[in-house]
Design a protein that fits this description.
The chain is mainly alpha-helical and about 200 residues long. The chain folds into two domains: about 50 residues, Homeodomain-like (Arc Repressor Mutant, subunit A), CATH 1.10.10; about 140 residues, Orthogonal Bundle (Tetracycline Repressor, domain 2). The protein has nine helices and no strands. It is elongated, with a radius of gyration of 18 Å. The relative contact order is 0.12.
């Protein structure tokens, strides 16, 4: 009984997040109302507040869940004994292919990472930390393996890698998605590795 109830609660939580993703992608965070999210999720407005404190909480939870899923996927595909350059390729490949498959997520991540209030931006940055940490861990491993230059500034380089992938996604969206995002993986990784390799 309890697990069935928990499962139903999780289904509603997921339905609300999926609806929020669609609404935020269509109207932007500031143009979205909780009532639109509720209508899209097929729940009453008040139901939203049983799961989330505010619209801001919905957005932060959305980032935490979706980016958390990406980090889990990376961990499933990247193993401790993998070469770091292969791991960088896998991170870029998953980043581009997952956002290409989920255009609403690509829109929300690109828009809300840039346009949110300072407090909201801080919360979203916290949700991003595991992803940035994953990139840093791969860079450190690459230095230890002798694959990457020993003089890399790891803290700066992790931001450059994330920022470059982020910009490729933004350009793809701005172009109206006129080309394949996943087709950009090899050129992007080649650029990264020319700067990283020992």
């Amino acid at each position: 009984m309890t697990s069935g109830l928990a499962e139903k609660k999780r289904e509603k939580y997921d339905a609300i997040l999926s609806a929020a993703l669609k609404i935020f992608a269509e109207y932007g965070y500031f143009g979205s109302q909780v009532s639109k999210i509720a209508r899209e999720a097929g729940v009453a407005d008040g139901t939203i507040y049983l799961y989330f404190k505010s619209k801001e909480d919905i957005l932060v939870s959305l980032f935490r869940e979706k980016l958390g899923n990406l980090v889990r996927m990376f961990h499933e595909h990247i193993h401790e004994d993998d070469r770091a350059d292969d791991a960088i390729r896998k991170i870029c490949e998953l980043h581009f292919t997952e956002l290409e498959k989920n255009v609403d997520l690509a829109k929300v991540t690109q828009l809300e990472l840039r346009q949110s209030s300072l407090d909201l931006h801080r919360e979203i940055s916290n949700a991003l930390k595991p992803y940035i940490q994953l990139i840093e861990d791969v860079l450190v491993r690459g230095i230890e393996q002798g694959v990457f230059r020993p003089d890399l500034d790891v803290k700066l380089t992790r931001l450059l890698l994330f920022g470059a992938m982020d910009e490729v996604v933004s350009s793809w969206l701005i172009s109206g998605r006129r080309y394949s995002l996943s087709d950009q993986v090899e050129k992007t990784v080649d650029f990264f590795l020319r700067g990283l390799r020992a």
